[in-house]
């Protein structure tokens, strides 16, 4: 038994009311590691239960309660605790919680373990991210009595969900001396979620650093991936080699009201804790020298790496864009353009980024029109690089140009929705990056479905159809008569369902299910996150189930979305009358006022998306125990015996308990 694990169990017995003097005798009675794991899991289950009593968006009572709980937990462990307030652009205030384990040397290395305690408004946030905070507390418990030549900081950040703002604020508050002493960071975010079976170690760009190498040495099962959607990016962009320890995939219940503590795998969280503690023991040991040299080599001058697979969200706001990349740009230009009764404002922000797998940064200018991202310009010559160098890099990534003339060379990337142009203007070489989409009509392959079965020879296409069939029993696939794979580029429309059109007439006894190929596979044919695909398939089947001829009379309504055609007494009509009759076409404004009326942010857009999303959460989640309107919607499904039978059949196929 590792010393730190024994100390963790000592704390477990104390919190359970067992005196420390009896620890040895109790420990000696333990017959196996199973009992030790049970006690550890009981402590983590208690942390999860307390943290997930309510949603925790920034500025909420739920977040305040989480901060108070964390302050008490860290203080009980003997750490000095600092509360750092942060106020967002809307005037909402959250709090970073920093617990410190001091080292004897005031100039010692500093290592960070972190998580974020906030959640989106529509969820209890068990997986995202009470799971990470629970791991953070467990690591702190394990390390509290160990000697250390390294200062350890345990940080729970606020407002990660709106763009890593809490961690960005924390990094901005540090002195240069502190940053120089910071050698690395481990962020815990989303562990043990339903629909995932393993953990991964991620860096911002998928390139290893000394922290990822150490964790993989401690746990050879960890694979290395790229991920930018957590607070490790804020630390990495501040020059600190940082990693994210998370589950492989987003799981079934991401950002939904069904993300509750009882859906998590505590053993997966415990495994992440064990790996992190093992790494910490080596970092903290007197036998290991300072890591400041290697940290400086790997962190100094780090710039955001814009990979091909990084999606650029054109038409997004400055705040959302900078939240995604985790960095603030330098405002370099502002101008206006006016016409007859209109005025457009333009603003430019400069960033240092590496592009096209280059090992050097280039000045990158994001141009916003009326506050929303319109185009990007890269100026390689400003950092001493030629157009020939850049063209070689682009061709290595994309191959031959899509078009070329005397003034410009262009490449289209329909997979990741980018259009790239290399040209020259009065300032020199410029690489333009803009949005590019082929639209929903870009069908790659189409297959008829008869009696719930399809004959598909293409192996990659067949795997997607077989995956759908592994979720939906054949008796529930009878109204699916067409299966299509299309693409509008990665991360736009993931899938859609529509009634079949015959001779210009909509027939809602037959449906096509359409799945975006490049949201299922990457450009190399490697599978993406199929836990996400699971949720998507069930959501889309919700449209089939609740838009067919038993729910909607198309001889009355103009479409499946026209409330005039909702059949009296149908499930759809009763759901609409109960939850949507006063909202009109969209619930977006209502969501801003009452987010817990919806199982997800996406569902608030339209009634037909809300009912389909609620169906998916009903199938994948447990019986709701709270009193929100969103949970009333879920219970509406639980009151229907036919819905319960369908839920049981799908969950059996997924290997889930009913």
Labels describing this entry:
single chain; 658 residues; alpha/beta; nine-stranded mixed beta sheet; eight-stranded mixed beta sheet; 35% helix; globular; disordered N terminus
Short description:
With 658 residues, the protein is of the alpha/beta class.
Low-confidence stretches: 1-32
Ends distance: 37 Å
The biggest beta sheet, please?
9 strands, mixed
* Fraction in helix: 25-40%
Q: Cα-atom Rg, whole angstroms?
A: 26 Å
Strand content: 15-25%
Number of strands: 21
Which structural category fits the helices and strands? alpha/beta
Give a structural overview.
By secondary structure, this protein is α/β, with parallel strands linked by helices. The protein has 20 helices and 21 strands. 35% of the residues lie in helices and 23% in strands. The protein starts with a helix and ends with a helix. The strands form three sheets. Strands 9, 10, 11, 12, 13, 14, 15, 16 and 17 form a nine-stranded mixed beta sheet that branches. Strands 1-2-4-3-5-8-6-7 form an eight-stranded mixed beta sheet, sandwiched between helices. It has a four-stranded mixed beta sheet with strand order 18-19-21-20. The longest helix is centred in the N-terminal third of the chain and has 19 residues, at 33-51. The model is unreliable at 1-32 (pLDDT under 50). Helix 1 packs across helix 5, helix 5 (126-143) crosses helix 10 (266-284) and helix 18 (607-620) packs across helix 19. It is globular and about 80 Å long.
